[in-house]
Amino acid sequence: MTLQSPASGLPDQIAISDAELAPFLSGSDPASKAHGLLLHQKQHWDLLRTGYNSLAQVRTRSFEFDGFQIKVQFNPGRLTSTAAKVDPASIRERKCFLCLESLPPAQRGFACDSAYLLLCNPFPIFPEHFTISHFRHIPQLIRGSFATFLNFTRELGSRYTVFYNGPKCGASAPDHLHLQAGLRSFVPIDTEYHALTRHPATRLFESGSLRVLCVDKYLRHFISFESSDAGVLLSALTALHEALRDGVSEGEPMLNILGFYSDRAWRILVFPRARHRPSFYFNEGPDKLLISPAAVELGGVCTTPREEDFEKVTREHLVQMFNEVSVSREAFNAIKARLAPKLAGLNA
Questions:
Q1: Spatial separation of the C-alpha atoms in residues 187 and 271, rounded to whole Å
Q2: What are the domain boundaries of the chain?
Q3: 58 Cβ partners below 8 Å, 6+ apart?
Q4: C-alpha to C-alpha distance for 45 and 285, rounded to whole angstroms
Q5: CB of 114 within 8 A of CB of 4?
Q6: What is the pTM (predicted TM-score) of this model?
Q7: Does pLDDT of 260 surpass 50?
């Protein structure tokens, strides 16, 4: 990921200059520059500072399962995102908050990879939370952006997890292509991963440069791709996308993605989805729980923007939610059956 100066074509009022950033830098790598941007913005952007001050007051509960943990946090700053209306009519009626002309005057960022803008998220879930949005207003689709996702994951991976929410899987701006990044240690799945995948039964495919694992005993099913070869990994992710598209009449297959990079290798986790939101989201009165799962929830941290939901959510609610929004075991097995020969063909 190349972080560019204002000369890259980004408007001067948005692009932060080297001189502005210098007092906040601890290194020259992209992750350090992103962290420096956050420190700068906390001093110079009131909305962001308010968001992080509120984050310091977040309350958390933990629910233990067999070999893993789900955390639930009360974070009122996430109400707008959690309750976002993402139907086509609502999208048409509002301004896109990720378009350059809609950004608040105090918000600054970096141009990166010539087509994206790295920004601090003013409504954070993570202790450090960023949005990486495309310069142009184009739909939220990952199919043509896998290489970009891998690039950002590699460049930010020393400090951050990069993630993608599909247009029907938690993206609050399904009309504008964007990724997000958050402090890596925040999501439980990062530390739980090796215990979840050590059983031989999880292995779907392995070659000299690629290992593909499938986990179906985690409440939510996911497929993991491990590789140090970006080209091989890109082909494998494309193969998965094709396997997921079988039976999808239009649009993007429902999915969320979490990306990790360490020791010069990627670990990309893909969560196929069946539904956008659980049934209790649409209930009325005391039976309603305002939880809208996206990549962070699938990584093990569920956000409740209303205190009453935080107080009443139970272990059974979490089981129900993941059972409803994740693909069934039968559907997951069908995805694996379609994917396996595609991966073998890559190695032929």
A1: 15
A2: 3-276+326-347
A3: 73, 74, 75
A4: 37
A5: yes
A6: 0.94
A7: yes
